[in-house]
Amino acid sequence: MSVSLLDVNVLIALAWPNHVHHHAARRWFEATSGEGWATTPVTELGFVRVSSNRKVIPTAATPGTALEVLRALCDLPGHEFWPDETRLAQPPFALDRIGSYKQVTNVHLSALAAKQRGRLVTFDRGIQNGLHPGDQGLVLVLPVT
C-alpha cells in the first residue's frame, strides 16, 4: 500500500472531534495510518488557517493552538512531510477537466501524491472529475456514512 496524503478537510476532520466527518476520518486513520500518511506545506498551512477561522469553524482555535494540534498530529506514527515542488502549470494536471475552483488544490495535491508514489485522501467526491481517467486511482475518497 502507498503512503496517503491527507487533504486539508481530512486533517481538519481528524483533529477536531466536533467536525461532522470526524468519525469517518478517525475510522479510516486508525485502520490505515500504519501504512504511512503525509502532510505538505499546503495542507499544513490550510489546516492552521481553517482551524483558526471562526467563519468556517464556530469553535475555532487560535492559530497557535491549531499549530500545536497540527504538531501533535504530525508526531503520530507513520507521518511523513512531503516538500512540494509540484507546479500547477505542468502535467499531469487535467486543467480542462477542473470544473470548479474548489478542485484546484486537490488536483495539485493528487499530482504531488503521484510524484511521491502515494495517494491523496479526501472527502471531495468531485476530485475525480479533475483527473485523467488513468490517474483516478491516485485518490481515495472517504465515505461519509
From TrEMBL:
Cofactor names from the entry are:
Mg(2+)
Q: What does this protein do?
A: Toxic component of a toxin-antitoxin (TA) system. An RNase.
Instruction: Tell me the SUPFAM superfamilies matching this sequence.
Output: PIN domain-like (SSF88723)
This protein's encoding gene: vapC39
| Top enzyme category | hydrolase
Question: Which family does the record assign?
Answer: Belongs to the PINc/VapC protein family.
Decide whether keyword Metal-binding is in the record.
yes
Residue ranges constituting the PIN domain according to the UniProt record: 5-127
Residues reported in the UniProt entry to bind Mg(2+): D7
What are the leading ranks of the lineage?
Bacteria, Bacillati, Actinomycetota, Actinomycetes, Pseudonocardiales
* Entry EC no(s): 3.1.-.-
* InterPro entries the record matches: Mtu_PIN, PIN-like_dom_sf, PIN_dom, VapC_family
Protein name listed in UniProt: Ribonuclease VapC
Q: Does the keyword Oxidoreductase apply?
A: no
Gene Ontology annotations of biological process type: negative regulation of growth
Annotated keywords: Hydrolase, Magnesium, Metal-binding, Nuclease, Toxin, Toxin-antitoxin system
Species this chain originates from: Amycolatopsis taiwanensis
TM stretches of this protein: none
Gene Ontology MF terms in the entry: hydrolase activity, acting on ester bonds; magnesium ion binding; RNA nuclease activity; toxin activity
